[in-house]
């Protein structure tokens, strides 16, 4: 759940016309501790936009970047599309699962990391690539991957 | 050795993306200034003469599209820049968005003048969050410098642009789904007709062009449509951005004039196959594109020449796969993409993707039979004929082309054997 003042602020900055709904949902989600949109937050947005709650549910369930399920503090997105596939992105996913001791679609017990397999995010020139928040890391091997994870662990 | 021709990407990396001053000092906004001194119909005519085709994938003549919308008498009209670059293997719009956003804004503003629109949207995929902020900042400075907003450059033109973020849905690259998404709804394609040019955002006439298409406009107006048409080939004017990735030494975005062969792109610009491996196939145009082998590489990059080989340029993505890749596994990866991205509205696409995935999965598990393999073709044909939008129509392209090029390999999987050892089946074999 996102704090009320933060929700108010996001809505205030973006406005409540319908073309701002997706941006608002994305921003509310990233303001939440575990990268999801809670029932309460969804209700708040529905009320502010003056649209039914079921519309909010529909939109959240349609777009793959949005989630109503708590995920983790850092979402590690692993690309599984063509360029990463042919440069053995599957091995990268296995390494990552091995390092964190979880599978894709799961969070670490401290909720610090959540692994998600995703489609192409346009970092094909660095394949195989992962994305953590807005940061993209490519051309990875086990050593580099461990270093990156450690950096987020410390942060 | 083939070289790039940077008439579109020449400013990339040479100015601060949010500085109008630096953009102008490089020669930016000359196109808009020239356009504003012309009659709107003459601006459209230059675009028609340039022979520019839409760069998003459909290759629809841009000038013709502008002309049709300019004749529709219904206000307001909207302009949308499709920056929902979602075709796997494509990252060329990203280059323009991140490094030369002013050119996109300039191209859209020229379009606004030509078709008389006051409001534009840039719909950018959610994955390009940094690009979203850069565009917003660039728009803010263009507005502050009088290149956007009310009475642009002292003329009667009013035009403003808003950036709208997607949230991870490939289908929103389809024009009508994109309009739905801008309206804050799920991005399901609409039934057509009516077409977007007549009934688009909020039911109003809407012009949708790709990032690369809009970015071509300033050059066309400044140097003239004839000049642009003289670059490239007779059937494909100008330059094209290609995104080359996969098993190549030097992946990246390259701007080349039409007419350069695919071999020159893959082996010249992208440095050829990495690690001393051998090229197995190339997929062109993204996940919805055809897969073909070395024998087609001498085809020039040209809409007509490639069409004769049943290859579409699409978004300009070129993904190279070497011999270590399993053709069936690649087909499965592609179909899993479409299974996930299908909006589920029409049955052929929703169920077809699921069925193709099921058969391909059985193949890599070694549990498929020959009859199922034959079904791959039937289901694919049905999807191509009966799906409601372009997503379902193009989804089975990779399966069909991989199957026709690597039939033997597909049948080997029925026997429980994979020659590459890179899919599921081989690991099982290796243990036994």
User: What would the average pLDDT of chain B be, to the nearest integer?
Assistant: 96
Strand content of chain B: 5-15%
The structural domain count of chain B equals 3
Rg over CA atoms of chain A: 17 Å
H/E series of chain B: HHHHEHHEHEHEHHEEHEEHEHHHHHHH
Classified by CATH, the class of the largest domain in chain B is: Alpha Beta
* Quaternary structure type: heterodimer
Q: Low-confidence parts of chain B, pLDDT < 50 over ≥5 residues?
A: none
Round the Cα radius of gyration of chain B to an integer and report it: 22 Å
Biggest beta sheet attributes of chain B: 5 strands, mixed
Record field, number of beta strands of chain A: 4
Helices of chain A, by number, come to 7
Mean pLDDT of chain A: 96
Query: What percent of the residues of chain A sit in helical stretches (DSSP H or I)?
Result: 40-55%
Write a structural description.
The complex is a heterodimer of chains A (155) and B (432). With 155 residues, chain A is α+β, with helices and mostly antiparallel strands. Chain A contains seven helices and four strands. Chain A has helices at 4-14, 21-31, 39-49, 53-62, 82-86, 89-100, 142-154, and strands at 74-79, 113-118, 130-132, 135-137. Chain A is elongated and about 50 Å long. Chain B has three domains: 20-229, Rossmann fold; 239-322, Ubiquitin-like (UB roll) (Roll), CATH 3.10.20.600; 327-427, NADH-ubiquinone oxidoreductase 51kDa subunit, iron-sulphur binding domain (de novo design (two linked rop proteins)). Helix content of chain B is 44%, strand content 12%. In chain B, the strands form two sheets. Chain B has a five-stranded mixed beta sheet. In chain B, strands 3-2-1-4 form a four-stranded parallel beta sheet, with helices on both faces. In chain B, strand 7 (279-284) and strand 8 form a beta hairpin. In chain B, helix 3 runs antiparallel to helix 4 and helix 3 packs across helix 6 (101-115). The longest helix of chain B is centred in the last third of the chain and has 19 residues, at 347-365. The model of chain B has no long low-confidence stretch (mean pLDDT 96). Classes of the chains: A alpha+beta (155), B alpha/beta (432). Chain A binds chain B through residues 18-23, 25-26, 49, 51, 55, 58-59, 62-66, 80-83, 85-87, 118-125, 127, 131, 134, and chain B through 85-91, 94, 121, 125-130, 162, 164-170, 181-188, 243, 245-247, 251-253, 283, 287, 317, 319-322, 325, 330, 333-334, 336-337, 340-341, 343.
């Amino acid at each position: 759940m996102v704090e009320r003042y933060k929700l108010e602020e996001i809505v205030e900055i973006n406005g409540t016309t319908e073309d701002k709904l997706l941006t608002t949902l994305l921003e509310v989600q990233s303001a939440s501790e575990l990268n999801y949109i809670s029932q309460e937050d969804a209700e708040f947005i529905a009320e502010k936009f003056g649209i039914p709650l079921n519309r909010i549910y529909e939109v959240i369930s349609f777009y793959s970047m949005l989630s109503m399920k708590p995920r983790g503090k850092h979402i590690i997105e692993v690309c599984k599309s063509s360029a990463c596939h042919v440069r053995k992105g599957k091995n990268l996913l296995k390494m990552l699962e091995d390092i964190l001791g979880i599978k894709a679609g799961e969070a670490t017990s401290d909720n610090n990391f959540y692994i998600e397999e995703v489609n192409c995010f346009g970092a094909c020139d660095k394949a195989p690539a992962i994305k953590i928040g807005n940061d993209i890391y490519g051309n990875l091997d086990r050593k580099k991957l461990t270093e990156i994870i450690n950096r987020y662990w410390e942060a | 050795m083939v070289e790039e021709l940077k008439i579109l990407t020449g400013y990339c990396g040479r100015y601060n993306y949010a500085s109008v001053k630096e953009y102008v000092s490089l020669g930016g906004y000359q196109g808009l200034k020239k356009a504003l001194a012309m009659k709107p119909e003459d601006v459209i005519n230059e675009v028609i003469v340039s022979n520019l085709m839409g760069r998003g994938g459909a290759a629809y003549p841009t000038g013709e599209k502008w002309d049709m919308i300019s004749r529709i008498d219904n206000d307001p009209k909207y302009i949308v820049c499709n920056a929902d670059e979602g075709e796997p293997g494509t990252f060329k719009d990203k280059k323009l968005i991140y490094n030369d956003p002013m050119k996109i804004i300039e191209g859209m503003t020229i379009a606004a003048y030509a078709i008389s629109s006051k409001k534009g949207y840039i719909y950018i995929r959610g994955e390009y969050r940094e690009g979203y902020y850069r565009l917003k900042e660039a728009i803010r400075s263009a507005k502050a410098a009088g290149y956007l907003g009310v009475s642009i450059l002292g003329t009667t033109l009013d035009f403003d642009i808003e950036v709208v973020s997607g949230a991870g849905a490939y289908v929103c690259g389809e024009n009508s789904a994109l309009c739905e998404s801008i309206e804050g709804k799920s991005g399901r394609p609409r039934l057509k007709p009516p077409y977007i040019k007549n009934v688009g955002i909020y039911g109003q006439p809407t012009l949708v062009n790709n990032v690369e298409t809009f970015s071509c406009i300033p050059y066309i107006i400044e140097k003239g449509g004839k000049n642009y048409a003289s670059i490239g080939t007779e059937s494909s004017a100008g330059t094209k951005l290609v995104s080359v990735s996969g098993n190549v030494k030097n992946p990246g975005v390259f701007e080349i004039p039409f007419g350069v062969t695919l071999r020159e792109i893959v082996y010249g610009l992208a440095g050829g196959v990495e690690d001393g491996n051998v090229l197995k196939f190339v997929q062109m145009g993204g996940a919805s594109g055809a897969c073909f082998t070395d024998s087609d590489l001498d085809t020039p990059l040209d809409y007509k020449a490639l069409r004769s080989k049943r290859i579409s340029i699409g978004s300009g993505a070129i993904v190279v796969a070497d011999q270590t890749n399993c053709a069936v596994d690649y087909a499965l990866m592609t179909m899993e993409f479409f299974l996930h991205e299908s909006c589920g509205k029409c049955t052929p696409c929703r169920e077809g993707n699921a069925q193709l995935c099921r058969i391909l999965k059985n193949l890599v598990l070694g549990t498929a039979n020959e009859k199922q393999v034959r079904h791959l073709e039937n289901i694919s044909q049905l999807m191509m004929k009966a799906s409601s939008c372009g997503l379902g129509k193009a989804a089975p392209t990779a399966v069909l082309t991989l199957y026709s090029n690597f039939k033997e390999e597909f049948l080997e999987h029925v026997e429980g054997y994979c020659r590459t050892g890179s899919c599921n089946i081989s690991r099982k074999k290796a243990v036994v």
